[in-house]
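Project channel, design review

CF: Before we commit to the Trichonephila clavipes constructs, I'd like one complete example in the thread so the newer folks can see what an input/output pair looks like. Taking Transposable element Tcb1 transposase.
RD: sounds good, go ahead.
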Amino acid sequence: MVHHVKGKRPLLQNGLLLPRDNARPHIARCVLGVSQQNNVEILPHPPYSPNLTPCDFWLFPQLKKPVRGKRFATKRKVLKDIKIDPKLSAVKLATETSRIMGRSVSAETVRNVIRHAGYSSRVARKKPFISLQNQKKRLEFAKTHQLKIDNFWKKVIFSDEIEHGGGSVMIWGCMASNGVENLVFIYGIMDHKLYIDILNNNLKGSAKKLGLDGNFIFQQDNDPKHTARNVKMWCLFHCKQQLHTPPQSPDIKVLENLWATLETAVQKHQIRNKAHLKQVLQEGDKISPDSTKKVVELVRRGLEDIIKAKEHATKY
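CF: and here is what came back for Transposable element Tcb1 transposase:
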């Protein structure tokens, strides 16, 4: 800059007087050293005084006049890229724009261009990964059971387990459209042998209390202990009808709603010990039949959502 100025103005060969503000890059030690080497005298500038800076109140406004109201190709390209791929981030667009223009363009500048064009930024919703094999299973299950009549769903006994207290207590539960039945508290590790004992002691009794004695459809998920050979043999002899829901399908998992209700009940108390936790969790038996009926009806809506989503994750 110094050589350029001296080349245009030979009268300034003996030195320059440079007024500058107090921005940190201007008062850095290395900058001051270069100024002394080139015989440049710095004119002190008081802070907060833009009226004393000719560049601010005259030069830069004059430079802006010729380009005021004009749109440049880079802006058009940014908007074109957004239309083609709305998921592009401002950071990526800024990087590409900087490469084209040959100078740095910030992501915030790109965001301003996008907002001025009427676009709004959004964060993409996170979707769980579902394998291709399970996508096909979900769609096949949804198409097969979507048109099942209400009487079919009234016969289904849904079962599942959940951990509470950081895994110190596990609960097995079952429910149907007309109510919640036995909740079994399990302390320790649950394997297929213990699972068979739970079914032996609770499933038929729960079916009888629900008015489905000998005429129920048993549902369980694809947990390894549920699909063990001994469990399959037990179900073959004791459950005439079974409902096998596809893997990776929490959106049609009825017991998830029951567990959410129990979790809400636990959060309202300061749990002192396992006995107190068990007492609070037993409030699940007090859930009204109207609530369980609505929960089971949500399964059909979940099946419709799976079909609409074309095998992919739904808004569960």
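RD: helpful, thanks. The mean pLDDT is 81.
CF: Residues 289-308 form the longest helix (20 residues).
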